[in-house]
Specification:
The chain has 285 residues and is α/β, with parallel strands linked by helices. The protein has 13 helices and 6 strands. The protein binds phenylalanine (PHE) and fe (iii) ion.
């Protein structure tokens, strides 16, 4: 299929990780929870414990509170149980997928309040670093905030925005917004900056790094068009973190029609990941 061919090409012919044979046309599979080994559950517990030691005073309260309610410290969780709790809270569901899925399918899931979670867990040697999203990143990093009504609405809106951006040639820009908010976002609180981005919250090193004063990385207030214009790093810590005041700002800031944004951005060069524009304030000097 087209998608598998594209990914195989991108990764120099290396096979796509995950088993796509039993996936339906939306790339959904059964989680097959019984197939996880005791070693995998043990690795999950270690990943979970390590993150829990890092999160107090760093992750936002909404994330930590929801994570505790999800009660997934004992091993790889059954998606079905969390999915029911999530549906009761915000109308979202979890669906199991074999791994990376096509953009169109991903957006369709989000637009319908379904969050796709990869079924496989990383190998022990990938404890600190993994290239592709696995079940730990997807579940631990992303699911807690889907219990927050405003963030949950933002994610659905993003899915719809993705479907629209595909038609407008805006995907490269919109992907940056996902990266800098959903994956690597920071939020201002009365106790200081906190993390809400899943890419940080599921990573060992970056949880500490992103809130450390004096690093070369930028911490600047999120302006939507500025973010859409900014390149990002996929193989190192971020050089810029965009900070929001609250989740409502995220929702309201992305509610307008992006068509004119894309038209303007197509006339401009992208900004390097470490840009600080005149007038922009470093929020973590
Ligand atoms: N409002 C945007 C548009 O019209 C879509 C969008 C929503 C983008 C939410 C990001 C987040 O294209
Ligand atoms: Fe992710």
């Amino acid at each position: 299929d087209d998608f598998l061919a594209t990914v195989a090409e991108k990764s120099n012919g290396a096979a796509l990780r995950g088993n796509y044979e039993k996936a339906d046309e939306q790339y959904v599979v059964a989680q097959d929870w019984d197939a996880y080994t005791e070693e995998e559950h043990e690795l999950w517990r270690k990943l979970y414990q390590r993150q829990m030691e890092l999160l107090p005073g760093r992750a936002c309260d909404e994330f930590i509170a929801a994570l505790h309610k999800m009660d997934a410290s004992g091993g790889i969780p059954k998606f079905e149980r969390t999915s029911e709790e999530l549906f009761a809270a915000t109308g979202w569901r979890i669906v199991a997928v074999p791994g990376l899925i096509p953009e169109l399918t991903f957006f369709e899931h989000l637009a319908n309040r379904r969050f796709p979670i990869t079924v496989w867990l990383r190998k022990p040697e990938e404890f600190n670093y993994i290239v592709e999203p696995d079940v730990f990143h997807d579940y631990f990093g992303h699911v807690p905030l889907l219990f927050n009504p405003v963030f949950a609405d933002y994610m659905q809106l993003y899915g719809k925005g993705g479907l629209k951006a595909m038609k407008l040639g805006g995907l490269d820009y919109l992907a940056r917004l996902y990266w800098y908010t959903v994956e690597f976002g920071l939020i201002k609180t009365d106790k200081g900056l906190r993390i809400y981005g899943a890419g940080i919250l599921s990573s060992g090193g970056e949880v500490e790094y992103c809130l450390k004063p004096g690093t070369p990385s930028r911490h600047i207030h999120l302006e939507i068009e500025r973010c859409l214009q900014t390149l990002y790093k996929i193989d190192s810590f971020q050089e810029t973190y965009f900070v929001i005041d609250n989740f409502q700002q995220l929702f309201d800031g992305t509610a307008p029609d992006f068509t004119p944004y894309y038209e303007r951005l197509k006339q401009l060069d992208a900004l390097p990941a470490n840009t600080l524009l005149p007038g922009e304030v470093e929020l973590l000097p």
